[in-house]
Amino acid sequence: MLKAVILIGGPQKGTRFRPLSFEVPKPLFPVAGVPMLQHHIEACAKVPNMKEILLIGFYQPNEELTRFLFTSQQEFKITIRYLQEYAALGTGGGLYHFRDQILSGGPQAFFVLNADVCSEFPLPEMLAFHQEHGDPSSLVILGTTANRTQSLNYGCIVENEETNEVLHYVEKPGTFVSDIINCGIYLFTPDIFQHIAGVFQKNQQDILLEEPANGWHRAAAIRLEQDIFTALAGQGKLYVYKTLSFWSQIKSAGSAIYASRLYLNRYHITHPERLACNQDGGYFILTVFHVQQPPLIAIPTSLCPQLGPNVSIGTGVTIGAGVRVRESIILHGASLQDHCCVLNCIVGWDSTIGKWARVEGTPSDPNPNDPYAKIDSETLFRDSKLTPSITILGCNVTIPSEVIILNSIVLPHKDLNRSFKNQIIL
Ligand SMILES: Nc1nc2c(ncn2[C@@H]2O[C@H](COP(=O)(O)OP(=O)(O)O[C@H]3O[C@H](CO)[C@@H](O)[C@H](O)[C@@H]3O)[C@@H](O)[C@H]2O)c(=O)[nH]1
């Protein structure tokens, strides 16, 4: 029997997702039209013999999360539970804290997935690889190839090319170590807990030697990457399965648009029903895009909106005549009035873009000429200037007619009265 754990982090994480993460926890933000986590859950639920999926994080359970768990359980017909850490315990600490829940029922192995990645999730392939490599208690990391410069932003793996054993592991090294990077997707056996227990004991001893702050001892985080993988590398216990299929991190709002594109490109095989087609709504589709419900369009075909490529439209969105949208996510309840143009944007829930307005951002797509390039999840500021990036409208923002909003982030509930460029509008 198998289980899966998804590490969803908590509210202090996902800061590069603001202001969108004010409204919805980052793991529930829609990517290719469904909550980011749903892609993980769907992949796990398809693995034969999968009994349970556990989400571990330090979010306060709220109505949205509860509703998502309820509908996902019904849709995928599998038990899904949320286990809340009392503090940020780290990628290994949360697993250790809930080890009894993970081990209940006696799974012979379990997957662990970072919530903030998009992937084809080659989980059955990882299982087959595990059976062929090393002893039954060995652990498997999913790896992919990155270019030399970008590899420094990830966990880097040096492998034995014949056996795929991990010989050396360095998390986000300062200088080049290897172009094989950790995808944040693992297959563990219950033996992992012996290794985490060793680190836990050591941390406890260190903590007891420390002066408590305000009468409290801090909760020591345990990081799978630095505390466990680095120590296990070279001991015949850790293996890397390299995938050639798509994979990307989702750290910033810009990377959510890129991840949306990666999933949408697969939808004609995996979910054709999620793609809009011409006849339904009477709009031109330049390439695939996703609509949750046909948008409300009632206009002569000569003024058909042009939607796509890579556009995802939430429920209850209103789209006027002659609207142009590409490379964007339009969240539910938004209204795009006649002839407005939306490029490389996330338009927040219930926002309105006035007639003939142009709302545009700058994509941060990976270099198309480099097969191993990954998306750069830039910091917000570079040289004390806002890095040009996609434009984000928080929820319930109003953009008047005939203005231009370029490379800007607009906080929720703003009613703008003029054009803006390269600004955060508070
Ligand atoms: N439950 C829980 N989850 C956590 C915690 N801290 C982080 N996470 C979750 O664990 C995942 C990893 O988050 P980070 O710690 O921010 O690491 P990272 O910079 O994304 O790097 C990791 O992922 C890369 C691939 O995307 C890897 O290349 C890298 O080695 C590392 O594993 C995310 O899904 C995050 O929500 C925690 O204390 N508790």
From TrEMBL:
Residues 306-425 form the Mannose-1-phosphate guanyltransferase C-terminal domain. This is GDP-mannose pyrophosphorylase Aa. Belongs to the transferase hexapeptide repeat family. InterPro entries: GMPPB_C, Mannose-1P_guanyltransferase, NTP_transferase_dom, Nucleotide-diphossugar_trans. Coiled coil: none annotated. CDD domains: M1P_guanylylT_A_like_N. Residues 3-202 form the Nucleotidyl transferase domain. GO terms for molecular function: GTP binding; nucleotidyltransferase activity. It comes from Gadus morhua (Atlantic cod).
